[in-house]
Design goal:
Layout (H helix, E strand, L loop, with lengths): L27 E6 L3 H9 L3 E2 L11 H12 L7 E5 L5 E5 L1 H11 L40 H9 L5 E6 L7 H9 L8 H8 L3 H9 L3 H4 L12 H15 L7 H11 L5 H22 L12 H14 L7 H8 L3 H6 L7 H16 L8 E11 L12 E5 L8 E6 L12 E6 L8 E6 L2 E9 L4 E4 L8 E3 L6 E9 L6 E3 L5
Parallel strand pairs: 2-4, 3-5, 6-8
Antiparallel strand pairs: 1-5, 3-4, 6-7, 7-15, 8-9, 9-14, 10-11, 10-14, 11-12, 12-13
């Protein structure tokens, strides 16, 4: 994967809500503008239109910029630009920075403040068109060398199409993602952190960008350049958000991070000092003990491994055990840990699970890599007359190696499965949607979650209680019985129970 971030999980660009068919009505107003190039240059000079250096870097080659300018001169249609109007009525370039800067640098203006141009882009200012076809009359020409008709047409007769986004509720920043998904028509779609850099611009954003340059942090990447789409900056944001407010985490990750960044927008200087010390001391400790390959169970950095390991080190950075590297290596071979760093890694319970597990393996007393941690549903499941599985608090139990086939545990209530199972017993369950006749299972039927014995023959399907005081329940052919898992037995050795807020 080179220097890219390898996403076993999808948290970096997690759009886990289906936005197809979503309307932006009521969220924002979209003004259709057609400014001339002359007016855009004037707005840029006066800082009304901003193409901030924390947006995407100017990555177009000279040939790409030249071909774009030639298209303008030839009146070839180009994709719409997208601006965002902030609370100060400034217009921020969200999509179209490469095109805007190509125009500004080509045309130039004696009143433009060169200090507004990044040093690495000085050589682009008042560039000459290059890389065009041999027959192009514009090859090798600067703006000053164009004939007067072309100059006037470019500046005044060639307006650009702009979608200006104005939020109806400036505090509802998460909504802007849906708008950008709908209206982004040109170039590479923006990713969440690029959007945050615009809509959450301020002291905290500057702080994150500054921290991203920290030398030891850059050693975790194969080069010193910024990772595409500011994913490296987003990692730092994840660390602070989860460290400060893990108890408030609620999916999707992108909205959670946006809300945190909005709240931290104007961070006091004393808080910046404390956070800088926290990040630097943590990353130095990780680098010292785990090396530059930390956070990489495979080739690339995994964001879920990053946040769980970073939080563990941050909370225990003054008490690092001598065998921490061995513990980390063992953690990264644990199938349960990798599972929750991968599939559905943004789920509320998955986030809390892997953070707690990393802390326990690295700095706790867990020595047995085969120890398994499973979800525990304290609903309870009915061994009587039924009880619906709702959105109750997610918890976990640690189980011994003898029970590693179990995928989750549930508490039962009632006496319908006596004498073998009693009210309050905790069952170990293997997730599966089929059972053999005679096996014990967890079922969802008629709005209830039930613990019963499964019986199937050629004529019918029934679920049966072990207690003879309860009649069998025959399943009509037009009703659906959902098998949720095979009951392996009762739990016998709970070493610890974690109560973790949030739905699994």
């Amino acid at each position: 994967m080179g220097n890219s971030i390898n996403k076993i999980n999808n948290d970096f660009e997690e759009f886990d809500e289906n936005t197809e068919g979503k309307s932006i009505k009521g969220i924002a107003r979209v003004d259709k503008l057609r400014p001339t190039i002359d007016s855009l240059i004037g707005q840029w000079k006066n800082q009304i239109l901003r193409t901030p250096d924390f947006q995407r870097k100017f990555v177009w080659t000279l040939q790409q910029s030249s071909r774009f300018i030639e298209s303008m001169l030839l009146d070839v249609p180009i994709p719409s630009l997208m601006f965002y109007k902030d609370s100060n009525s400034n217009q921020l370039v969200v999509d179209g920075q490469q095109r805007i800067k190509s125009i500004i640098y080509f045309v130039g203006d004696e009143n433009i403040n060169l200090e507004d141009i990044p040093k690495e882009e000085y050589n682009r200012y008042k560039f000459k068109l290059t890389g065009l076809s041999e027959n192009s009359k514009y090859e090798g020409k600067s703006f000053e060398e164009l004939d007067e008709t072309d100059k006037l047409n470019l500046l005044y007769a060639r307006p650009l199409d702009v979608n200006l986004i104005v939020l109806n509720n400036p505090d509802n920043l998460s909504s802007i993602y849906y708008i950008f998904e709908r209206l982004n028509t040109g170039g590479t779609p923006l990713k969440p952190q690029e959007i945050r850099n615009c809509i959450c611009a301020g002291k905290f954003n500057d702080f994150l960008l500054d921290l991203n340059k920290y030398p030891t942090w850059r050693k975790f990447f194969n080069d010193s350049n910024a990772i595409d789409h500011f994913q490296d900056v987003e990692l730092i944001l994840r660390f602070f958000a989860l460290y400060d407010r893990i108890e408030q985490y609620n999916r999707p990750m992108k909205d959670y991070l946006t809300e945190y960044m909005k709240n931290m927008k104007n961070i006091p200087d004393e808080d910046k000092i404390a956070k800088k010390e926290l990040f630097i001391s943590t990353i130095e400790s990780v680098y010292l003990h785990l090396g530059s390959r930390a956070f990489r169970p495979n080739n690339g950095i995994n964001s879920s491994v990053f946040d769980s390991v970073m939080l563990a080190f941050a909370k225990n950075r003054n008490n690092i055990p001598p065998d921490i590297k061995d513990k980390y290596d063992r953690l990264c071979t644990n199938k349960e840990y990798i599972k929750y760093c991968g599939q559905s890694s943004g789920d509320n319970s998955s986030v809390r699970y892997r953070i707690q597990m990393a802390n326990d393996y690295l700095f706790g007393e867990i020595e047995d890599i085969n120890l398994k941690i499973i979800r525990f549903y304290d609903f309870p499941v009915s061994a009587g007359h039924g009880n619906f599985i709702g959105d109750e608090t997610a918890t976990y139990v640690k189980i011994t190696t003898d029970n590693r086939k179990a995928d989750f545990a549930v508490k039962i209530t009632g006496n319908s499965m006596e004498p073998d199972f009693h009210d309050g017993d905790i069952l170990l369950v293997k997730s599966q949607n089929t059972l053999n006749s005679g096996q014990l299972g967890i079922f969802f039927y008629d709005g209830d979650t039930l613990f019963k014995k499964y019986k199937k023959n050629k004529k019918k399907i029934s679920i049966i209680s072990l207690n003879k005081d309860y009649d069998p329940v025959d399943i009509p052919s037009n009703r659906k019985l959902v098998i949720q898992g095979l009951v392996l037995g009762k739990i016998t050795n709970i070493t610890e129970i974690w109560v973790i807020s949030g739905r699994g």
